[in-house]
Specification:
Layout lengths: L14 E7 L3 H5 L1 H8 L3 E6 L5 H6 L6 E5 L6 E5 L2 E5 L4 H6 L5 E4 L8 E2 L4 E2 L4 H7 L7 H10 L5 E5 L6 H16 L7 E2 L3 E4 L7 H11 L7 E3 L4 E5 L15 E3 L3 H21 L6 H20 L11 H12 L8 H5 L2 H18 L5 H16 L8 H8 L5 H9 L2 H9 L2 H15 L6
Parallel strand pairs: 1-2, 1-6, 2-5, 3-12, 6-9, 9-10, 13-14
Antiparallel strand pairs: 3-4, 7-8, 11-13
Helix pairs in contact: 6-7, 9-10, 9-13, 9-14, 13-14, 14-18, 16-18
The structure holds D-mannonic acid.
D-mannonic acid binds next to helix 9 and helix 12.
């Protein structure tokens, strides 16, 4: 990649201090940009998880790639130089043992942890985890992470940047469970701060590659496209140090939980609702145009009362900004991208809202509408892109009424837990909403 002076990266660090598992578009549009902007010499070794495509694209470009921002004004592009190495999964453990590495960060998506979303424990029957525990060169994320941590003595931070509730604690518990099952003792001090990450990053299209080329004057095969907005809230527990991410706009705090709950329930909850209720639309910006009212009702009546808003935080402004971000027509964010992996996303996005409202004696009908729309999606989607697809499709096969579909899916306690399975209020609301959706009703 030959660059004009104006598009050069700010800083090309000489050494790697961060190993990142899951170097997809989101990491490159988010944490890598903060690391570049911190400008204090931290380089990233990105490790691909399932596919080697990113490695193949970045290697010939010496790790350089561009971030294309699409917002209200003209699109802009800049080149990021923070990624210094790109490797494939087998290299994970060895790379983590390097004492120069101080942080292992992760964006491997919800399903990458192979845990049961209702209990937060590793899925008991997961054959890949069992094979890793039996001693093969590990292939799962947790197996590789533990193999690496087991081989180092210097302190390190494991930084989960996926959209899970209490993501740091969740990963800590999975690592501990894996170690316990495998009789493994970790010789190093490890911290697991929680984080709230936010930047909408749709899949890159050919038009995005062309647009970046027009703006930069070079062809980059590894463009990531994103919105102007970006937010990162991080629990500040880094025994081996960290980049000055705060100087790049991240919020370093003692307690991420209120931010995380707000983002998961308002942004991601609304996103999932839009994806299932708006499955007839191609892009989020089209869906929000028609579904703005139910989304606002969901945010105001169901999600907001369950939040602990940080002092001085303007919740109303936050919600309006979400609606504006969803409506961004320049960002071609496909609803199908969000609809993927619903079984792994529903618990932290929608079911927590349902639980909290039921406990307060309220009927969360908008959140229930979103869950009913997911049930309809499970029943009718041409392709169900979900790690639990087989189980879910089998559960609803032959269910010929709203009652039967609801009962079949509620009995999947890995998603709903026994409490929601047994809640008659939830069940009756779901049946009512699913029956309406199945009859083609579009007035909510
Ligand atoms: C989306 C998120 O794909 C999805 O399920 O809801 O990836 C969302 O775009 C990000 O969390 C925004 O920060």
């Amino acid at each position: 990649m030959r660059l004009s002076l104006t598009s050069r990266p700010r800083d090309v660090p000489g050494s790697v201090g961060i190993v990142h598992l899951g170097i997809g578009a989101f990491h490159r549009a988010h944490q890598a940009v903060y690391t570049e902007d911190a400008g204090d010499g931290w380089g990233i070794c990105g490790i691909t998880q399932r596919s080697a495509t990113v490695a193949e694209r970045l290697a010939p470009q010496d790790g350089l790639y561009s971030v294309l921002e699409r917002g209200a004004g003209p699109a802009s592009a800049r080149v990021i130089g923070a990624v210094r190495e790109v490797l494939t999964g087998e290299a994970t453990a060895e790379r983590i043992t390097d004492p120069a590495v101080k942080i292992v960060s992760l964006t491997v998506t919800e399903k990458g942890y192979r845990h049961d979303p209702a209990t937060g424990r590793l899925r008991g029957d997961d054959p890949e985890i069992s094979l890793d525990l039996a001693g093969r060169p590990p292939r799962t994320v947790i197996g590789r992470l533990v193999r690496g941590l087991a081989g180092r003595e210097a302190p390190v931070t494991v930084l989960c940047c996926d959209n899970l509730t209490a993501n740091g604690e969740t990963v800590r518990a999975l690592v501990e469970e894996y170690c316990e099952r495998g009789g493994i003792r970790l010789p190093c001090e490890v911290s697991f701060p929680s984080t709230m990450v936010d930047r909408i990053t749709p899949a890159t299209t050919r038009e995005d590659l062309d647009e970046a080329e027009r703006l930069l004057g070079v062809r980059d095969e590894a463009v990531v496209v994103t919105e102007p907005f970006s937010q990162w809230v991080i629990e500040d527990v880094f025994p081996a140090g960290r980049p000055a991410w705060d100087s790049a706009g991240a919020i370093l705090t003692g307690d991420v939980a209120p931010y995380e709950k707000m983002k998961l329930r308002l942004l991601n909850g609304s996103h999932s609702m839009l994806a299932y209720l708006g499955s007839g639309f191609e892009y989020v910006s089209e869906a929000i145009d028609v579904l703005g009212d139910p989304i606002r009702h969901f945010m105001d009546e169901d999600a907001s009362p369950t939040l602990d808003v940080p002092p001085g935080f303007d919740l109303a402004a936050y919600k309006s900004s979400l609606l504006e971000r969803f409506a961004n027509p320049a960002l071609r964010h496909r609803v199908a991208q969000i609809a993927m992996d619903g079984s792994q996303k529903l618990p932290q996005r929608l079911l927590g809202v349902v639980r909290d409202r039921l406990a307060a004696g309220a009927e969360p009908r908008w959140a229930v509408l979103a869950v009913a729309a997911w049930m309809r999606h499970v029943q009718t989607a041409r392709v169900l892109d979900d790690p639990m697809a087989d189980l879910l499709r089998t559960a609803v096969a032959g269910a010929d009424s709203a009652e039967k579909v609801v009962d079949a899916l509620l009995s999947v306690t890995d998603i709903f837990g026994p409490d929601l399975r047994d809640s008659t209020v939830f069940r009756d609301l779901l049946v009512e909403q699913l029956a309406r959706l199945s009859s083609g009703a579009t007035a909510y």
